[in-house]
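Researcher: Hi, I'm a grad student and pretty new to this. My advisor asked me to get structures for two proteins we've been looking at. I'm not sure of the right format, so I'll just paste the first sequence and hope you can take it from there.
Model: That works fine. Here's the first sequence with its structure tokens right after it:
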Amino acid sequence: MEIWLILIFLGVAKGIANQSNPTTTTTTTQWQQQQQQPQYYHSNDSLQQKQQLPAVDALIGAEFSQLHEPHLTRTSVIFGLTKVANESNVNARCESQLRQVQRGILSKQPWAMKVLDASGTKPSGFVYGQNYWLGSREACKGVQSPVGITLSKNFDRVMHYGLITQQAPFDMDYRVVYLRHNSPWQVEIKLMSEQIIHIGLCLPRACSSEEVKQLAGEYVSRGMFAENDIFDIRPEVVYMKDLQLRDVFFQRSSFRLLVATALATGALMLCAQQLLVGKKLTPNGEETQESGGLAPAESELWRALHSLLRWERLQKLVSCYDVPSNWSKIFAVRENKAHEIPVMNGLRSICAIWIMIFHVVWFMYFTVHNKTVLITYAEQAFFQYVSSAPLLVDVFFTISGFLQTYNFLRNSSQLEEVRRNSWRKNLQLFGKLLFHRYLRLGPLYLVVMLCVDLTYAYIGDTSVYHINERFDEMCSKHWWRNLFFIQNLFNHRDMCANWSWSLACEMQFFILANVLLFLYAKHPKLTKILVATILISSTVWSYGIGLSIKFQLSFDAAFATGTEIYTSPFVRILPYIMGAITAWFLLEKPGSQQLVLSDMQERSCWHFALFIFFSCIYSTIKRDLGSLLAISLFVLGRLCFSLSICWVIAGSAQGRGVWWSRLLEAKGFQHLSRLSYAIYLLNPLVIAFFYSLTSASTHADPFMLCVVTCGFAVIVYLLSILFSLAFEFPYSNLSSLLLKKRDANKPKSA
């Protein structure tokens, strides 16, 4: 009898509400559900009342289904997929489980509500780039297992306790479907993958990825997507990911090569340690003839190493991998010698960190949900030091051009050898110099390429983000370009690790500089004419390319013209030539012909060089310039920028300077300078990897960016030490060892 009274009461109340105000029917019912349902878990009523409640729940659930099913179909992708699923597009088990999800949501079962909540829907911010409708990957995991949280029973709570304890009746997986939208209601910056919507879905494991992709295609093609009506999204399904690492990952050639390289390096380090222990065991640090400087052999492995390491040449090779020795070289801080140019240590260190800060912002762009705001930050005056950081690559080019010419011209014996040699012997000498250059730069660079291939293959499978630059695919196709340092001669979108373009430029400039220096040793006038021709040609080429492609300083135009302007060796050679000319001027011009300045004039020139440096950094604060002005600012700005660096380097080489240049000459920069190569190579990889591991998009915020940058700086610094110890310093030692052997074998002149 009581249950009938309750049902009659509910019907009368509903009728009165409909007559008085039909528009509030849904709101009233929702309010009743919110107020009544949580109380079921804390009611102390009689058993009879508890038995009556399921009937009331069924009535309310039916009303909820009738009122909200159309709304859920159009606003919730996961619910929409359950509506379009049928026996023709999914397997029977998948269809059955999707129907269970649908019924569970409509009947408000806690596990199903968690599925609905874990799946993505459109958040606010679409106009400024919010395309990450990811839901919650962790919440989807909570559907399959109880939430690991302990709550006191001493407090009353309005929550459904099933949210913590209730699990799905079948296995669920979190997946991401990617849609390309064509909405005119989103700011389009044209910096890759902006029109890809990421939708996270908590789905039954029984549904295959292809089936889910087909369901998503049917869902959006039927016009059931409410956001399509509002923002004219017109979506099309691109692909989907199950975020599981595929078995083919461990079959990649890069995986096998990297494992083999790591094992070989570890074995060589172990052998070097064995040699070191053997030397310590001999009295007075002298090696005995019997032991050959080796520790006692205590196992078959050590006996084999013992016999191998008796070979003197192998001992010298293995000693290059001595970890304590290389560690001391990395951290050594000493007084600067007379022939050194200490300001280079500061320039290298600061520019490497500065470029890393730029990469933190650059790779953040692909994970932030307010991309437009991030770009507005980059164009503000305060943040020009970040957005103009790519200009700092010219600092490394200027230093390289200076050192290449400076070291060659200072080596009088080598210079005389080049003058005496025939073209065939000079060709052999040229090949040896190129080999040693490759030996010093190549190993670390190639190991990083292997890491790039593996890392991007991993995040391509497991990251929730759409990875626009699939370096794993590019490295598999175009690895030979990186092997020969020619990747910058091709489209920048097809590069394996596109930040390595500058290393390719460095190697190409090194080859050209050596050709010109060899020629200078025999034909100085002809070489001067050629250098001047190259300098003028580079300037004319830059202007011609810039005007033909209508170059602009905006970020989208700069990215689109990367192949023609940014990575082109014909455009980027200018600072290298300026550095080389500065070195030639210092060494070839006698002191009487050099510029003589008073102390006041010299200090003014130093401060003016600093002013030029920062003026070039901040010169792009106004970016909406015409093509002629833009390319003029690009070419002449880089010329002035490299001249300011040349002044600093030349002044330090002559022992002059002011207070800020003395800071750059501080001994503390010696350590960071030795790691600058590894920092430059590793920081984009580390930053991209950690960003890709996040399961939710980030918000561009300057203060949080500072904290994130500090964290990346520490991680990159530690990894740079590890990679330098294993793959840079051993081969630098080997190069020095081979050069010493070559010098020792040279016939001594009378």
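Researcher: Oh nice, that was easy. Here's the second one.
Model: And its structure:
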Amino acid sequence: MDVFSGSLVQSNSFIKLQSSPSSFPAPMLLGNKGERLTRNNPYSCSCKRKTRAHSSPNLHSPSETTFEVTGVKSDFSSKEINWPSPTDDIPFWKKDFPPWDMSPLVSVNLDHHDPNPMHIIHVTAEMAPIAKVGGLGDVVTGLARACLTRGHNVDIMLPLYECIPKHQINKLIRITSYESYHDGKWVATDAYRGVVSGIPVIFLEPSNHFFKGSYVYGGSYNELEAYLFFSRACLEWMQVTGTQPDIIHVHEWQAGALPLLYWDMYHHLSVKKPRIVLTIHNLEHYGECSKEQLSRCGLDGPIYATVDKALDDRTIGHNPERLSLLKGGIVYSNAVVTVSPTYLKETLCSGWLASTLIRHRDKYYGILNGIDTVMWNPSSDIFLPAMFDAQKTDGKKTCKRYVQTGLGLPSDKVPLVVCITRLVAQKGLHLIHHAIKRVEQLGGQMIVLGKAPDVRVESEFEGLAKLHNQGPSIRIMLIYSEELSHMLYAAADMVLVPSLYEPCGLAQMIAMRYGTIPIVRKTGGLADTVFDMDDQANIDKANGFVFDGIDEGSLNWALDRAFSHYTQKPEEWNDITRKVMQIDNSWHNTAGKYVDVYNSGLLYMIRMGVSPPQPTHSY
């Protein structure tokens, strides 16, 4: 086979005091002969690796759990490589890989132990690797792991999606059975505890139809109402079990109702201690909600339909007016963080939420994301045919040849460019399309890996795949594959990230970790992490190629310079490859800035609508 405040307490009828009890269609991969092969959906819970369930350390309660990322001694000794072929029955990225148990790599690092350990609970719709759709899942896992290494007690609360591969959860056990309110009923709910990648996770499984289906998103249930239920169920679990974390850290619109529920309901009951931090990963997703839908979680929806609370400003004067869960989360959280300093500035200057963010700018922080350097590590990555690091880079050449051979590309010493992305408008689709042509003109090779949720975009790229995938230089892989993404980052000479806007972006940082030089558009977090090789003012920081415009000429300028450096200055290229591999884009420093926010007196001073006058913070 060929493969290529409202401070009102809500109505008592919605409050239940309890004591502690003891479809998307199948996606397609377009092959180099145009055939369609069913593969994983980009919204599936995991990459469905062919791994075995593995052992785990004994489970502890949050107050007993200690973790740390420790160094991994790598052995780069040569091993026999089974070189793949595009005619293999099983594609090389779908073959068996050894189990990847990161638990032993995580324990408390006493050298970086924070003096005041906190209990932090993340409430999120995604977590890598078991429920990952995009960067949100990577960020939650990386930040949680980094705070664990600093001595904090950390839990992640996640829906127990039906599609989660349970063999990837260590020692999954039911810990609580309780009820949580939704739409006039109390829904029986089970809470489970397990460990994923060394991180304690609390999974919530309601007895109704929420979170059922083959993928994280796109089930047959109403997603908005499911996440409204989840937000309340998290707080209800804390009340039922007497759990009083220091910080509840909520992510994106899916958990945007939790701050409202906390301050206007549960804080008046028994959950008194926590303060709320909201991270905005992408302001493009607002969590539009009707007053009636919000009321189904037990809040009085109409009281939030004001400009100073959760009213969607774009719908003022419409019939009906709408609410935004993300806006409500901004207003009701003690601190709000977005994922890069530049994106913070951009969000204060444009978009309908800018006025809300300006009103709350005293509690608004810009903290650059990090990457999980345990999960993304070329010296220990189980998906690579050969491992390498900045001192011994020969394995990178092997990875390049391996990918070229497996995809039917000539093993030539020409630049290999990869673009690993969701194929959505934000990512600069017209520039990706143009880059395919330009790279071919320049005599290079290019691999695009991604899925498009829009069928029109998918159809367009299917046409490009049919045109190019039988040729000698371009491969367009319309699939989601965690395994293949690791291989491509390791194999590539350059990674293209031409986003029209990018809150932070992880691809450029992951690529550098694997010695791959980024070519990026100057926006958001890309502007904070990539500095142009030809910018004499930042020569010490130089680590890639940057362009400003959204036109093809601007992209050409960056691609042409990158190819020129690669072909005409090979020694300098090798030096920059080693240099970028040593840049510290880990979560260690970033987590410290989050801890500063958690510890800030701001969290204990802010009440709804009363904020101390402080400047906007950027890190």
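Researcher: Is there anything I should tell my advisor about the second?
Model: You could mention this: Residues 34 and 466 are 6 Å apart (CA to CA).
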